[in-house]
Amino acid sequence: QVTVFMKMISPATSDWILTAMADGAALLPAAITLLMPGYFTEFGVLYVSNVVPSANSTVARDKDDGGSMVRYLKYWVIHTLLSSLLGSLRPILAWVPLSMHGTWILWAYVQLEPITRRLHAFLERELTLFGLLHSFPDASGADGDANQGIDQTMTVKLFRKASSMLPNTSSKPTPTVGGEGEEKSDDEAASGEEEAAAAASTTAPADSELVRAKID
Predict the structure, then answer these.
(1) 117, 68 contact by CB (below 8 A)
(2) Hey, is 137 helix, strand or coil?
(3) End-to-end Cα distance, the chain
(4) Which of 83-92, 154-163, 183-192 shows the lowest per-residue confidence on average (mean pLDDT)?
(5) Is 0.85 surpassed by the pTM of this model?
(6) Residue 8, SS3?
(7) What confidence tens digit (pLDDT) does each residue in 48-61 have?
(8) Neighbour-count burial of 91, counting CB atoms closer than 10 A to its CB (0-12 exposed, 13-18 middle, 19+ buried)
(9) In which band, very low, low, confident or very high, does the pLDDT at 76 lie, cut at 50, 70 and 90?
């Protein structure tokens, strides 16, 4: 409060620090697993990603704290998607050094209240622009996503950026080769016509001589 009064930090930053300290205190029993091999760190990951949020969800339900209940409902949505993603990448992460320690830090970061709300808002916006969720107006009655389409989603932007980085395998025909081929074909046709005309001129006198001989 003193730093806020002296305007060294904003009230929002002060709230974030206090929340991070309160949430971090619950993670201290699992913090020791960060100093252990990955096999023991996995138990710390289970404690951070499942035990602590489950206990906090139960406390929020018992106290009938609507804000905390909404927070942990959003967390469990993110938990489901992130668990599926990490599960699909598990064969790859098994070869990455200290991947389990990084997973521990990821779960500790995700369950911070500002991060949880931010990730859920991002996920909600993506699904709304894809048409999978209904867009509700805010408190002022304005619908911010009404005039936006699927092209504004981060998923489409990342997909287009990745596609632009791929090598282009389409080959365009060079005009010089085609022009030379056409010139050659025209020359061959002209030479063929000249040969045919020469052959006709050589055979014409022979035919006329035969006709005169028959008449005589």
Answers:
(1) no
(2) coil
(3) 135
(4) 183-192
(5) no
(6) coil
(7) 999 999 998 998 88
(8) exposed
(9) very high
